[in-house]
Amino acid sequence: MEQFLEEARKVCQEAEVFFVTHKSTPVSFEANRLKSLETNETRGIALRIVKDGRIGFAASNNLEDVKGLVDRAVEVAPFGAEAKFTLPSSNSYPSVEVYDPEVEAVTVEQMVELGQSLVDGVRKHTPEILCDAGVTQSVTEVNIINSRGGQTGYKKSVFGLGLEGTLIRGTDMLFVGDGQSSCRPITEHHSILKKVHDQLDMAKETAHAPSGEVPVIFTPHGVAAALLSPLSMAFNGKTVLQGASPLVGKLGQKLCDDRFSLWDDATLNYRPGSRPCDDEGVPTQRIPLIERGVVGSFLYDLQTAAQAKAQSTGSASRGMGSLPSPSTSLLIIDEGDVSYEDMLSDVKEGLVVERLLGVGQSNVLGGDFSGNVLLGYKVEQGRVVGRVKNTMISGNVYEALNNLVAIGKEGEWVGGSLRLPPLYCRNISVSRKE
Q: Is the dihedral of CA 155, 161, 162, 163 positive or negative?
């Protein structure tokens, strides 16, 4: 890395070297059988420079081609965007634990056994179901140095376990599933099995979905599917600068129900979305996006922060072949004070939405959401009476968050980067095909 930086400093005003190694071992099951297991290892280096006020960028997996990488970055710099940022110098970083050596100690045989026992546990409940499962371990190392003396990095381990099941009966297809991920090994799958068993039990009977404006309870997975994509885009500093976000000019203003708070927090220990620094070497922090219904902050990297005359929030992410841009890391919705059972008992006729299909085809930037209900249940007089089919929901995330009946007190991790409670909303549009 030092060689690349030294060579770049000869021809430009500022330079940054970003070096990543990634090793992963995925074990996959398809149609109830072990399909594949392999180990992949990649590494790459990216160089970002500022020459004559313009950004140059090049990336490679050839760690010997020092001069070639620098020359390519210099070559594209005249066509790059105007650099508004200043690279960070030496910094102090939060203590964030994201590496556990025990992840690397899990053998392939143990991963196969874990995946097979997950498949077997679901098939014991429902023998005719077809299961696809995955068990993955990975380790990523990130290192960043720049011409202003900034130098940082971290090592992260991730272990993931998940299952998707398909139950086909005639022309009826039922899709169920759940998963977990952590920076530590996952050695038991009882909670995943329970979730899938519950889904199968509640889906045994089918029911006609209500239509019109009806109350809907979004489970944590339902919240992730329907509501978070519009919010993530709206709080992205790049979208705000482009004037495409509906939140332009609303910093510090009331946006939704004052019981609702949304955070981006990369400083939680052993969560796959966490890290001590972003991909530009800026310290991460807990960022209030919505605090008690009020817009608290937007997500910025160095470039967008400088353009907005703000400070970077430590939210820069990048692929190996791309420049940094703002991104969410670990989104958290504060839990409320109402149990899921109490939410359910309050619904006279409505829906529970667990999974959606085809979300994102509407005006997402405006906050709209719509999708087919892949897994959802009809509620009558406070109890689930069956699974709904041929049903679609639609709405607007800001209207939904201003029409909250309750926020659940049982938050769950969805994937490695979301912690969400159930949300009970009134007047969500529901339509069905007869």
A: positive
pLDDT, tens digit, 9 for 90 and up, residues 232-289: 999 999 999 999 999 999 999 999 999 999 999 999 999 999 999 999 999 999 999 9
Which tens digits make up the pLDDT trace of 189-238? 999 999 999 999 999 999 999 999 999 999 999 999 999 999 999 999 99
CB 225 within 8 A of CB 356: yes
- Give me 132's structure tokens: 């696809």
Instruction: Tell me the helices (H) and strands (E) count for the chain, helix number first.
Output: 11, 22
The set of residues, in sequence order, having a beta carbon less than 8 Å from that of 82 and lying 6+ positions away, is 53, 54, 55
Q: How far apart are CA 351 and CA 216, in angstroms?
A: 5
Specify whether the CB–CB gap between 334 and 223 falls below 8 A.
no
d(CA 348, CA 327): 40
Q: What are phi and psi of 316, to 5 degrees?
A: -75, 135
Residue 394: closest CA among 220, 230, 178, 202: 230
- The sign of the torsion formed by the CA atoms of 213, 214, 220, 222 equals negative
> At CA 133, angle to CA 131 and CA 139, rounded to 5?
175
Give pLDDT tens digits for 39-53: 999 999 999 999 999
CA dist 58 → 84, 162, 304, 313 (Å): 19, 36, 20, 25
Which helix (H) or strand (E) segment holds residue 111: the answer is helix 108-125
> Do residues 258 and 431 touch, judged by C-beta distance below 8 A?
no
pTM assigned to the model: 0.93
- Extract the tokens encoding 276: 């001590």
* Token pair of 47 as six digits: 């160089």
Instruction: Name, in order, each residue with C-beta under 8 angstroms of 376's C-beta and a sequence gap of 6 or more.
Output: 209, 222, 351, 352, 353, 354, 355, 387, 388, 391
Structure tokens at 410: 């049982």
Amino acid at 96: V
What is the per-residue pLDDT across 341-399, written as a single tens digit (0 to 9) for each? 999 999 999 999 999 998 766 788 899 999 999 999 999 999 999 999 999 999 999 99
- Residue 27 exposure: Cα atoms within 13 Å on the Cβ side: 22
The residue ranges of DSSP E strands in 219-268, in sequence order, are 262-265
Contact 290, 228 (CB under 8 A): no
Structure tokens at 416: 């490695």
Q: How many residues does the chain have?
A: 434
Tell me, what's the pLDDT at 170? 87
**Pair 217, 422: CB distance under 8 Å:** yes
